[in-house]
């Protein structure tokens, strides 16, 4: 049969098989290739730094510049294949990047809940476990020739504005939560084999990136004007934790400018901060075509050669896109760049590839080399996706209580709403092909007989043509479950929301169905961002509200398990739910975090906003009750100093010590907290610890300093130990961007329990001026 006569489907499968078979062999240093296998850079016994230097010394300039881009070219004379750096694994192996594809032996991969949902679990061990599974599946697909080993995930930007379309990808609005998520997920992805990497993760998008397309301003043209205080206090915190605590192998710079300089051309951000101060052991990559954007769109440089030179000299090692391959050689010819600058960039990328084992010969002979199709979508992986969804669901309201539903009294259930039979919508964006789906309708159907009506044709809900059938179903059922909310047509990359209400006529449908319902009405919301559901919160006919985020492939099963009490909900909101009025006159382009009465500016996130909310950060109910008692905690903690100066640089009127003047080491506040379950149901409690620093214009109202997860059977008590690092978590940032420890009384909060801790300076020596 001639190739022209093949059907497109058969042809694509054949091409996929050919490409996979070609890629299964070694990326480099093939032991069967006698001309290259003996080269020094192929010797596993040599230090990686020596191997990298040997390889760079063998490359021509023309070969080098073609390795500066994500679609890195092959170097056949040295036995090195081409490599596509761009793969994604935000919440499961994804095919968004060209480095990964599904088909053949790998038709799909486990699709975990979207990050905003998993963050609501406040469970760091869960995040690491998900990372381990995702990297197992990624390695298996790499071994099968259908994926890469460099994954540009996670997204750890701050969910600053509730309208941001990509907020769903983030761990929420709190920098400590986002940074902790980053560190644990990255550890799960990268493994714990010393310097060797299982896969290479990447924390993105550095920095102050949280606007896609709002009111005529898009991310390619946006200049984020950010104070030094907010950079240090908020936007950079997750990235610093990702690098220092997670040891991430990569950081991605963003499209936007920060204070007039494109992030991918800013040596202060890249070379001085990420690599210099934080000591990144890895490579810095641009967001896709960012270098081209700051030349062509932002007009930051006069020539493309200058753009290439600025990016590389700023500390960029890899360009997602072709720009550096096209213009770096000419930049050298024009004297804007030196070949040693190219070499320095390649040191960072090649070192990561060697840590991944890509220059160690046959993949099957390496650690993780035995992973294959059997390790993708395995039952235990899918069970973890279900458990993650259960832990991320947040019970916002439970009047009565009306939940959990009863098997005996709620045998027939009306399941209504545009998300009621959702499948692909449940996995959000930057997703792959799931192993399978359990929709809400299917999940609820495992517990009760269902009457299904969608009520709205889609989440836009432009008319009421389907309302009648939905209202009739509610009249006939023992209970009504409305599955409403958003999807990627409302919030997504390059799609910021216009407002916070439910789209179209969804609110009208909810209210009319609740009014007609014979039994309790339960509202289940799918969304990444917060929704102003004040109407439902205040409507006594709406008995309960659940937020499921985008709960992943098993989301429907998890929702049903919570509704019927198989799972006792323990999730907490990782972002504030604001009323619509909050955003009515608030520009997304205003990056200031702190409120200002003078400017009539409300502030951002629970740390700085004091106005009315629909539901606060950290809100989440349970089917049982937990009581906290602090049984052990210091009242005074001495902060040892390296010395003392009388100038205002050392202290501010003696009330705030520079962190770099304190002996931080492992200086911490230890708490012992008893958690008692006073209800009748076993439950897993999410304990959030906040600190309110001494009053001052630098300090947030309160800030998250620790969190823990503890399972407590009904009627019993468990003790939880908490350690709060003083310099990291009890510090604040002054207007110059300097982190300081306020001296005085800090109030630690756990729900309604407060404990005062007085921090006092202890001078140990003299700092030389």
TrEMBL record:
InterPro entries: BXL, Fn3-like, GH, Glyco_hydro_3_C, Glyco_hydro_3_C_sf, Glyco_hydro_3_N, Glyco_hydro_3_N_sf, Ig-like_fold
Keyword Signal: yes
Domain Fibronectin type III-like: 685-754
Record's signal peptide: 1-23
Keywords tagged on the record: Glycosidase, Hydrolase, Signal
Origin superkingdom: Eukaryota
Coiled coil spans: none
Pfam family, one: Glyco_hydro_3_C
The protein's name: Fibronectin type III-like domain-containing protein
